[in-house]
Amino acid sequence: MAYAQPHPRLSVVSNSSQSSSTDHLSPTTNSTRFSLPSAPSLHPPASNKSGPNRPNIYDRNLNKTRGAEVSSAAFAFLFSEIIQYTQKRVSGINDLERQLNTLGYRIGSRALELMVWRAEGSSKAPKREIKLLSVLVMIHAQVWKAVFGKTADAIERSVENPDEYMIVDNDPPIERYISVPRDMSQLSCSSFTAGIVEAVLDGLSFPARVTAHNTPIAQFPNRTTILIKLEKSVLEREELLK
Amino acid sequence: MAIFSLWVINKAGGLVYQRNFADGLAPLTSNEYLVLAGTLHGIHAITSRLSPMGSSSGVQVIEAETFKLNILLTVTGTKFVLLTSLTDTTADSVLQKVYDIYADAVMKNPFHTPEMPIRSEGFDTRIGSFIGTGQT
């Protein structure tokens, strides 16, 4: 509907402009050209709103966050179906994790856009994170808060590899109801989260490969580590910025 | 006051979960449990048609000399059965809570196949920590 409407309007205007080229001195053709055909198509949202349809999601205020949360039960069922659907269409655990990562990526790029808009949109001096550490802290706190409603539990730096960082979540909300069978034990459904993180890093020009790993401890059986392996160019730039 | 055992019976009468919590029950093989669950499913179907006063949801409690058997029928046809001692009064609330846990840890788990035996670690641990602590 929304896509079909501009076209009739455009064609009407071009038709009438053709006719007006033949007798463009007549005022009646001019008035019909602007009033009659284009008038109804100019206000399609008004007619939609008065109907039983609920207001369009795109009309909502982007900065209003209160009451905009999604029920965790509804999300749990949706995510469960996503995994079942994906699992039928992949050839192994790695493939499944990659698919979940791709799905998360689509969320991450949107989440970043929205977060920056909300945080910097009204600011007089908008800024952008360019330091790796502040980006990681932002992901750990703000991205987690925006997506999961809580902050992650730790940021760690790999001892062996300087290009590896880890974000730890003791109880990831998306895995709360999931029990992975033993024969798939290396599967981490937080690959979805890894995709979100990868998109945020990519969006801020910190290209990296992000993966998720189960690192259970006695106290937190669902503990998950999001492993960030940064590209070399990022580290070289960090050196220059020092 | 004790909780002896929990069964979950699917809507076709198959036993999909069985776990004992206290000693005192006669030891049975898994095949015998399956037969008992199927029989109970049949009895439940009969009792739901016997009511003299309109429709009935079927048997809810079966009492014996040494124990009672509490049944919770959900709207989807899944039955939760709790074997308790006669003095136990918490069975209804326990069954309701078990249903909650089932909805969370089984139905929201993408690796569970509906109507099939429950092999979900999350369900096991949650039931263990709930009924384990509910015991005296």
TrEMBL record, chain A:
Any Pfam family the entry gives: TRAPP
First-listed, main subcellular location of the protein, grouped into a coarse class: endoplasmic reticulum
Disordered, as annotated region: 1-60
Listed Low complexity bias regions: 11-21, 35-47
GO terms, biological process: endoplasmic reticulum to Golgi vesicle-mediated transport
GO CC field: endoplasmic reticulum; TRAPPI protein complex; TRAPPII protein complex; TRAPPIII protein complex
Compositionally biased residues, Polar residues: 22-34
Quaternary state and interactors: Part of the multisubunit TRAPP (transport protein particle) complex.
Record-given protein name: Trafficking protein particle complex subunit
Organism, scientific name: Psilocybe cyanescens
UniProtKB/TrEMBL annotation, chain B:
A Gene Ontology biological process term: endoplasmic reticulum to Golgi vesicle-mediated transport
Entries under Pfam families matching the protein: Sybindin (PF04099)
Domain of life from the UniProt record: Eukaryota
Main location: endoplasmic reticulum
UniProt keyword terms in alphabetical order: Endoplasmic reticulum, ER-Golgi transport, Golgi apparatus, Transport
InterPro entries tied to this protein: Longin-like_dom_sf (IPR011012), TRAPPC (IPR007233)
Origin species: Psilocybe cyanescens
Family stated for the protein in its record: Belongs to the TRAPP small subunits family. TRAPPC4 subfamily.
Location of this chain's protein in the cell: Endoplasmic reticulum; Golgi apparatus, cis-Golgi network; Golgi apparatus
Protein name: Trafficking protein particle complex subunit
One cellular-component annotation, GO: TRAPP complex
Quaternary structure note: Part of the multisubunit transport protein particle (TRAPP) complex.
